[in-house]
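Study the following:
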Amino acid sequence: MQLVQSGGGLVQPGGSVSVSCAASGFSLDHYTFSWFRQAPVKDREWVSCLNTNTGDRFYPDSVKGRFTISTNNDLDAVRMKMDTLKPEDTALYYCTAAWGVGCPTGWTDNDFWGQGIQVTVSS
């Protein structure tokens, strides 16, 4: 069982990009999914959380209104769409899954972690 990430890449400031996370070997149902990011010389930061039991979504102020976390209808993938991107959004992005935990989750609360994918915001 694992999370496999895709998407990301290079995008200009003000642009949009999506990152996705596919569950391999298990269903997303009843898991809480989060996205974290890690930029050079910065602390790891939580950027979104989705509780599949309640449908609730949470975001920190740094990305609220710009990032949107969602699942697909088959509940086998989680996606985060990032709009109005800024250079400070440049980071390695990770998806995580936690069973029986509410939002927001801490990094070590999770049961599964994706491999990480780079998003670079630059002109």
